[in-house]
Amino acid sequence: MSDLPSVSIVIPTYNGKDLLDSCLASLFQRTKYSRDRLRVVVIDDGSTDGTDNYLQQEYAEKVELISLKENVGFIRASNLGMTYCLQHEPDYILLLNNDTRIVQDDWLKKLIKTAESYGDQMGLICPKLIFPNGQIQWSGRPRETRTFFLILQTITARHNPGFGAANEPSNAEEVVLEVNTVTGACMLIKSDLIKVLGMFDTALVPAFQEDVEYSFRSSRAGYKVLYRPDVCVVHDERSSYESRNSEAERNRKYWQLRNCIVVSLKYFGISKSLVFGSPIYLVAALFDVRDKNRPLGILNLKLANSLTECFRTLYQSVHDALTIYQAEQLTQ
């Protein structure tokens, strides 16, 4: 038996059978890691496209399947997966989106090597995400302490491909950077951290900003939040919501904005969130990105909807975020 740390990989999925197949095929083909130290768990979040039957036929010997009877959303599905894995006491849990693809044989060994080197201080670590064409989608942003820019990070991270890459060393091999947030599309978590801090905040259900909130929570508790730029994972960034129903698609902007505000309130307080965050929330409510493959900029923005609808979304997001924040404060 290998002396490598044990890793449980949790993959939530919903109606993305083809993408999931690509994810799993690349995971098993490219990952050079002792199989006796690796557990792969797929959480089928109420899929209606035959995902569960497909997995039982094609991956029965490689994947442990947890089938949910109804769709509970990414956060609850991830929490269920982590809860299941913790029963087997792995050293690490890795959350992996079903629309990712592994392209490096040593990706996991590198992340684990870095995590092990930090010992008890280790919290979270993630790789660089790239689009299928090789362009940078997400790279770790320089560590920030100013409230305005931290709030800006929380709301623009997934809309600004490549931002922060210019700050990476030209020779990124073995380089590890401390960052404010990691990406939940591929996030390695030390199991001991989960036992101390708990799991994703269900106040953010069904999805969005759970990775930002967990990064802030980990950092506040004194754990390292890390990024390794020489490790790359392809992220298609399509299945999570394009495969869902029309209600989910309509509510996407509301969930994104509401949860950004919740996280801001939780970590910066009401006054700073409103003073520094208001202009950011307003722009986020009014505009969408034209081309997700290009960095943010005036020419890459378009009006999200009618002005009436945009302001309705903003009002509802602020109102509901304040309600969630106050409820969380009362339970603490």
Describe the structure.
The chain is α/β, with parallel strands linked by helices and 332 residues long. The protein has two domains: 233 residues, Spore Coat Polysaccharide Biosynthesis Protein SpsA, Chain A (Alpha-Beta Complex); 86 residues. It is 43% helix and 20% strand. The protein is built from ten helices and twelve strands. The strands form two sheets. Strands 1, 2, 3, 4, 5, 6, 7, 8, 9 and 10 form a ten-stranded mixed sheet that branches. Helix 2 links the parallel strand 2 and strand 3. Helix 5 runs antiparallel to helix 9. The radius of gyration is 19 Å and the shape is globular. The termini are far apart. About 2% of the residues have low confidence.
Notable features of this structure?
alpha/beta; 332 residues; 20% strand; ten-stranded mixed β-sheet; 2 domains; Spore Coat Polysaccharide Biosynthesis Protein SpsA, Chain A; 12 strands
**The CATH fourth-level homologous superfamily of the largest domain:** Spore Coat Polysaccharide Biosynthesis Protein SpsA, Chain A
* Whole-number mean pLDDT: 90
Distance between the termini: 44 Å
> Structural class, judged by helices and strands?
alpha/beta
Q: How many helices does DSSP assign?
A: 10
Total strands: 12
Q: Major beta sheet, specifics? A: 10 strands, mixed
Give unreliable regions as ranges.
239-244
Rough outline: globular
Beta fraction of the residues?
15-25%
What CATH first level of the largest domain would be assigned? Alpha Beta
As a whole number of angstroms, the C-alpha radius of gyration is 19 Å
